[in-house]
Design a protein that fits this description.
This protein is α/β, with parallel strands linked by helices. 18% of the residues lie in helices and 42% in strands.
Length: 143
């Protein structure tokens, strides 16, 4: 998934439809949520874990994971250390922190979208260089 051969599509933990979990917890490996969770979820970042929220999935709490895929509903902040994918019908009610985002038509974010990490810094540098280059062009043109 996402071009990295180390990741697998294996799901280590499933919260099935109709299941309701209350309380915050830490996970190791990949998690698929199609039930309801009331509490924060934190994953082991060294494992490059993927947390997926299914069509019926609902989280009321903050979510911290390297990779996040949302089809369902998250009521809380989402912190994706690497990448977040918002599929059609996904709804996030909270701030979204990410390094890379893939947002499909029909997905919704009601909160701030905050780019983090190296990719955001690279984009900012490119803007500064472009502006500086255009100023040099304008000065040369006027002279």
């Amino acid at each position: 998934m996402w071009g990295n051969k180390k990741k697998t599509n294996q799901i280590d933990t499933i919260i099935a439809k109709g299941t309701r979990v209350e309380g915050s917890f830490n996970i190791a490996g990949n998690l698929f949520i199609d039930g309801q969770i009331q509490g924060d979820i934190r994953s082991d970042h060294s494992q490059e874990a993927i947390v997926s929220v299914g069509l019926n999935g609902e989280i009321s709490g903050d979510l911290y994971a390297p990779y996040v895929v949302v089809f369902g509903h998250v009521k809380g902040d989402v912190h994706a250390a690497e990448k977040v994918e918002l599929k059609p019908g996904a709804k996030v009610e909270g701030d979204l922190y990410y390094k890379v985002i893939e947002m499909n038509a029909g997905s919704e974010v009601n909160g701030k979208m905050i780019a983090m990490g190296e990719s955001a810094k690279l984009e900012h540098k490119a803007e500064e260089e472009t502006e500086a280059g255009s100023d040099k062009y304008n000065v040369a043109k006027q002279a």
